[in-house]
């Protein structure tokens, strides 16, 4: 099993993917904040003037790019650190625990499944019984 399946690479791939998804969420939140900021600036401009709104604008594209770079740098730094730590680790799967986990998941799926009866609309009464998984 050890030679055929590279567990460490598999785990690192999924950790890296989760980190990327995490900082994509932060980038999306930053975009939402910037959009809200521009909405506020438009309201300020309507009630005052364009120069005043421009003077209080602190969330311009430079600020957004600065925050974006900081988020990406932090995510990349975490990824590099995790990869560095994993260089010191050898891993193998505990097949007993893996099988137990699989059985628990299957039993949970069965516990929440429902029996269903279906009758056709052709005048014939066809009944089908089964479990939805």
C-alpha Rg (nearest Å): 27 Å
Q: How many alpha or pi helices?
A: 4
Distance from N terminus to C terminus (CA atoms, Å) equals 30 Å
Structural class: mainly alpha
Order of secondary-structure elements: HHHH
Estimate the helix proportion, in percent. 55-70%
Largest beta sheet, briefly?
Answer: none
Low-confidence stretches: none
Q: Proportion of β residues?
A: under 5%
The 3D shape can be described as elongated
Taking all residues together, what is the mean pLDDT? 81
How many β-strand runs? 0
Structural write-up:
- With 133 residues, the chain is mainly alpha-helical.
- It has a domain at 7-93.
- Helix content is 68%, strand content 0%.
- Helix 1 (7-47) packs antiparallel against helix 3.
- The longest helix has 41 residues, at 7-47.
- It is elongated.
- 0% of the residues are buried.
Note the main attributes of this structure.
mainly alpha; 68% helix; 4 helices; single chain; elongated; 133 residues
Give a quick rundown of the structure.
With 133 residues, this protein is mainly alpha-helical. The protein is 68% helix and 0% strand.
Structural topology:
Layout: H1 7-47, H2 50-55, H3 61-86, H4 95-111
